[in-house]
Amino acid sequence: MEALNLTTTTNPPLSKSLFRESHLLRSTFKPELIPCGVKTRSRHRSKNFSFTFACKLKTPQDITNNDKSISKKIVLSEVAPPLGEEGGKGTGNGKAPVKSGRGGGAMGFVKKFPRKVLAILSNLPLAIGEMSTVAGLMALGTVIDQGEAPGFYFQKFPEESPVLGFFTWRWILTLGFDHMYSSPIFLGTLALLGASLMACTYTTQIPLVKIARRWNFMDSAEAIRKQEYSDILPRAKVQDLGVLLMGSGYEVFLKGPSLYAFKGLAGRFAPIGVHLAMLLIMAGGTLSATGSFRGSVTVPQGLNFVVGDVLGPSGFLSTPTEAFNTEVHVNRFYMDYYDSGEVSQFHTDLSLFDLDGKEVTRKTISVNDPLRYGGFTIYQTDWSISALQILKDDEGPFNLAMAPLKVNGDKKLYGTFLPVGDSESPNVKGISMLARDLQSIVLYDQEGKFSGVRRPSSKLPIDIDGTRIIIVDAIGSSGLELKTDPGVPIVYAGFGALMLTTCISYLSHSQIWAVQDGTTVTVGGKTNRAKAEFPEEMNRLLDQVPEIVESSLSKEADRISG
């Protein structure tokens, strides 16, 4: 197909100039100096103005030198384009030349499936059912506590009182619902949904894009009038319409008296992008469920632990790295408090050491401010009190271990006991100490009566039953959660692509056809979105098409014949 690049400039209000570069143009459009007026349809009053088309024959050298400066083009041809898959009465279908090649990647894999299998997988009700199943399993995973020991499920879902009359611990452990997101049922449903998305993309979305990219000319005015929008310009030129459409962002193609224009083709590609983004999200989620490590530990201030001793694999794709040999030292643990005395935030100062004992990084973490190093992340999730450091009768210091207590629903309550007298006696008595945080310690005598409150590091002594006690320090423990999750970057990329392609999918793919019959131009068009705005846009464009004045045409014809 021979193609012409056509750009236009005229005197205002049409500031474009028209260039031709092939003898083919002469058969469809002869550049003339013609006084023209604004085209009016029957419902508009005529308004005349004049303008001039300036035409310049371009040499091949000019084309080579100026090709980069042409941002818009109208492609004209009198050679029939290649036939497409769709055809109709009075239409000629074709497409721009593209390189053919074998499908690769996921689409190449899908292409090998039998057509019957692809038809089943791309079935919409099946895909909806798969998505509903995945959503239901995810909801069930939030109801059932994940990663607990079997004994936990024995107690919470006993066979004596099954949930809904049948659901017991046997269902949970047999189906793997204690690790829902790495269970065979969940991963199998996710894989089936991914196969359906790829099948739908290959059988439906890609063919739609190929059809949308074809140059679809209509040679019949009757076919054009059947479009969603149509109108007739009684005295106009199809080339003038093409110039205006080009200025409005359309890609314009001319073949003889026929015109085809489109814009918003990216909106046709968006569903493919949405499907690929969903596949990325599912792939990332699957990798997170089957290839990550997780673990938690409570470490008193001043102690160490090795990352690999805490982390445990979550699936068959979990592979440890060299960073698992990193040693973590808890330098300090402390809290922030509200004016009311309640805990507002807690912090842990951590140092990380390599195998040679060299500190590789140090950071004070808190809730929502984790430490990341070597592919693993350390989160601040909890706290406790591990010990009280005291002086007894000016001797010590002694470390008394604190134990968590549950009294009257208190979430955080820790206690310890200091024996008084013979500690070997079966009826040993002593001083009790309770704490809800690291700010203050409440002390009780041997009879359980309140004796007083002391703050750690205040160095204020208290005498209880003849024993002098000084609270030196309350040693806190930091609750840390460690995790490696190789699927997070993939999931983030998938959600980013999903948001972008979802916005692009709202772009309207608009198509316009026109055919010249004498001095009459029949125009029609359609769009897949913005149905209400499309007629308004068309009316605005058609109102700007210059109307050819009949007297000017006769004078020019007389001049040429004379």
State the main characteristics.
alpha+beta; TATA-Binding Protein; seven-stranded antiparallel sheet; single chain; six-stranded mixed sheet; 15 helices; 28 strands; 562 residues
Please provide a brief summary of the model.
31% of the residues lie in helices and 31% in strands.
Explain how this protein is built.
- With 562 residues, this protein is of the alpha+beta class.
- The chain folds into four domains: 2-102, no CATH class; 124-204; 217-264 and 508-561, TATA-Binding Protein; 295-484, no CATH class.
- Strand 22 (441-444) and strand 23 form a beta hairpin.
- Helix 3 (105-111) crosses helix 8 and helix 5 (124-143) runs antiparallel to helix 8 (184-212).
- The chain is elongated and about 130 Å long.
- The model is unreliable at 1-103 (pLDDT under 50).
What global shape is seen? Answer: elongated
Q: Using only CA atoms, what is the Rg? A: 39 Å
Helix count? 15
N-to-C span: 37 Å
The description of the largest β-sheet is: 7 strands, antiparallel
Overall mean pLDDT stands at 80
Which band does the percent of strand residues land in? 25-35%
Helix content: 25-40%
SS-based structural class? alpha+beta
Number of strands: 28
Count structural domains. Answer: 4
Residue windows where pLDDT falls under 50 for at least 5 positions: 1-103
Pfam families: ResB
InterPro entries: Cyt_c_bgen_Ccs1/CcsB/ResB, ResB-like_domain
Membrane topology: Multi-pass membrane protein
Organism: Juglans regia (English walnut)
